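Weekly structure sync, notes
Attendees: PL (lead), two postdocs, one rotation student
Agenda item 3: pending single-chain targets
PL asked that the sequence for the first pending target be pasted directly into the notes so everyone works from the same version. It is reproduced below exactly as submitted, 218 residues in total.
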Amino acid sequence: MPTTRTLLACSTLLLVAGVCIADDFQPNQSEMPVAPPEGAIVLLDETTNDFLNKHGEAIDWPLQEGVATSTRGEGRSNHIVSKTFFRDADIHAEFKLPKKGSGNSGIYIHGNYELQIINSVGKEKLDQGDIGAVYGFAPAMVNAGKGPGEWQVYDIRYRAPRRDENGKITEEGSITAWLNGQKVQDETKLGEPRSKYHPYRYNTTDYLKAIWEHQKET
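Predicted structure, written out during the meeting:
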């Protein structure tokens, strides 16, 4: 296995702020790790760690050769959040699930919307708790998940909901996502967060991206 992978027993994690329309979004996921495109903000690799824990302190996830492995924390979760603020963005993340357990985790955007990471191999009828789902909004269009121990890749195009000065949504946001070469979300509309697990309730769309775990190694 190449040692240049990066994030979650996660591989490369990139952020490109400012995006185009979803119709032109068809990333090449045939090879990993992916070199950062021009203008990308690298959040985690062998030389960069742009994350803090939920208390604003240094993360305690083990980091080795650019790979971060999630760990159990006090209470329900030990999620990490990026220092970088953004609104709209393209997000690229490479990850793998542990060989034992479900690997239940996810990529939270603005602390409100979660792209599921979990072992759903072989499942035919997908729900909002399976890999590729936007938790609380939509299951994946297809089961594109790979087995435990295999590197996987998400490419996510996120457009944040627009809000007025009182925090009320005036225009819904959207997510288009590709997982392992297959489109799993196609401009899924986003209103107020629906997951009871979402870690932030500040009604802001200029906030953080989080890597979330439920006491499961990823």
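Discussion points:
- The first strand starts at residue 10 and ends at 17.
- Residues 1-9, 18-22, 201-209, 211-216 have pLDDT under 50 and may be disordered.
Action: rotation student to compare against the earlier draft before next sync.
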